Amino acid sequence: MPTLAELTLRFALLSLVAFGGGNATLPEMHRIVVEQNHWLTDATFTELFAIAQAAPGPNILVVSLIGLQLAGIPGFLAVTVAFCVPPAVLMYGFYRWWQTHADAAWRTHIQAVIGPLAAGLVLAGGGLIAVTATTASGSWTTLAVTAATIPLVLRLPWNPLWWIALGAALGLLGVI
Amino acid sequence: MTPGRAPTAVSLGELFRGFCLIGLSGFGGVMPWARRYIVERYHWLEPEEFAALLGLGQVMPGPNVMNLSVCVGQKFQGWRGAIVAPLGMMLFPMVIVLMLGLAYLRFGDQPVVHAVLRGIIAVGAGLIIATGLKMLYVYKRRPLALAIALAIVIAVGVLRLSLLPVVAVVLTFGIALEFAARRR
Questions:
Q1: Domain boundaries, chain B
Q2: What is the interface size between A and B, counted as CB pairs within 8 Å?
Q3: Which of A90, A125, B11, B169 gets the most CB atoms within 10 Å of its CB?
């Protein structure tokens, strides 16, 4: 298991490229935590993702849960702080500078690159969860349910909470 | 306070309370609630300024809502506000997720827990992919933007390359190409 210092350093670094929030870093977290170091299994990793999805609040909660699983409550706190503070400090520094360049052309250029970059990371994060859960369970039903959810979510303007509740019900009834 | 007009002063206590409520309301996504409270209920920001700060939050790393809370806190109370607002927003969600996480450590081996989580994983992955597609939809007529997203999905999702160098390379080349394309 990793030391607190190692966890803090890894997640602080990761937070600096977390364009698109916590879910955007799922592939990298999986690479570090499951593939490289075998600190967690595929099954636990995807279940922590599910718990974070079911809780209220910003989508970085999955990061905190990984910290809790790896190093208890100190890990929970260390990872949360490591993941929140660097972006917050950056934001604080950039705020005024950004305000004073409200009409600058480079602002649009940067937005036009970071927007799709973040979208790509989020897509990779969702895909990683679907594929990992499918291989961990050995059943294609998981992938089928994920695939069926996507067009429904895009069509129906439900609160995400109802989709999570639906997923929980499908699991409880043994459909998945 | 006159409705519809942004106040000139918001105290640290008001920031903390307001963002606590936003964080607590955020079942299934914080952003709609952030807008409801910050723009419509408290009139801390005009809709245009809210949209502008959201745009800034999106180009910076970290969760958008947290970046937004830092900006709003900073606007009204400087560095103190930039600490108090995100703390308020994170407080209750953190306590709730800690409880859930501890319960999972204790009862995670129960078959019923696995069953429920299995369903949430499948649907949750679909939710995240749908979110990514919505984020990408605004760029549907921009080949360079679509190429960037595709490159990221392949490099990070399929080839499983390390995230930091991938982001550094894509940012550098993407911004260079964007500048070159717009200059013509």
A1: 1-110, 140-184
A2: 364
A3: A125
